[in-house]
Amino acid sequence: MNFPTVRVLLVSACALTLVSGLSAQAPAAPKLDIPAASPAASFKQRVGITDIEVVYSRPSMKGREVFGKLEPFGEVWRLGANSATRITFSTGLKVQGAALAAGTYEVFALLGKSEWTVIFQKADKSNWGAYSYKQENDTLRVTAKVAALAQPVETFTIAVNNLRDSSATLDFTWEKTLVSLKLEMDVSSLVPGIEAVMAGDYSKKPYVAAAMFYLDNNFDLKKALEWMNAAIAEQPEAFFLVYRKAKVQAAMGDKAGALATAQASLAGANATKMAPAIRDEYVRLNNALISSLK
Predict the structure, then answer these.
(1) Residues near 222 by Cβ (< 8 Å), separated by ≥ 6?
(2) Going by C-beta distance under 8 Å and a sequence separation of 6 or more, which residues neighbour residue 185?
(3) φ, ψ for residue 107, nearest 5 deg
(4) Where, residue-wise, is CATH 1.25.40.10 in the chain?
(5) pTM score, whole prediction
(6) pLDDT digit string (tens) for 122-168?
(7) Is the CATH number of domain 188-293 1.25.40.10?
């Protein structure tokens, strides 16, 4: 190796050392806490005995026209922003009348002016947006009509509303659009366990809870009435339980019996020494029930 070559190599090595030294000395950029354009959100909701969890990101209009422009009709949308929206059901259920097994799903929508097709795919991995969406991976497709809202909703919102023991709605709202899916859960599987408890030799039984569950789901109303009578026997002055008995009688079609029971509950509410707010509530409830029975 001649002298010029050695000199070039030494200069190159020094330059590399200098660059490496400068890189080592430069501090890492600090982590910036910058507001997200579409903040992450999640919520859990129990419906009957089904736990529902939704994880998604929430874009806002920010002066933009959303449906038909920002989110074109005829294309698949991730129902939010960033990663595909995920929803988990702890039990099987029906969505728009179609069966869907328990599990975690990514949710998409094929957008239309008057109707959306909402798509559930088994969530095996987290996908960014709908870019890797493939129709052959669909688990379930359901359709739902688009309803117009009177006032615009600035930020995309998913919510579980209209809760009953065995049903609810899964609502998507943004801009002036509402799309609602009906969710239905089978709670009839609880009946054998409830009846076993109620027939058992226990000192305290959940008479009221069992009776109201049967009333709300139109199960055996004769048993519901029997359990309400047992609850009232334990607390004869409980006018609020008497009101619930009247509700059961009304559901059974016994208008005369329900009317007499509601009037007895009303008298108890008017005579109570409990808080005025409780008195007023049951005066109002009983008067409304009495009016509906006349």
Answers:
(1) 252
(2) 47, 48, 49, 50, 91, 93, 94, 165, 166, 167
(3) -120, 130
(4) 188-293
(5) 0.80
(6) 986 666 666 678 899 999 999 999 999 999 999 999 999 999 999 99
(7) yes
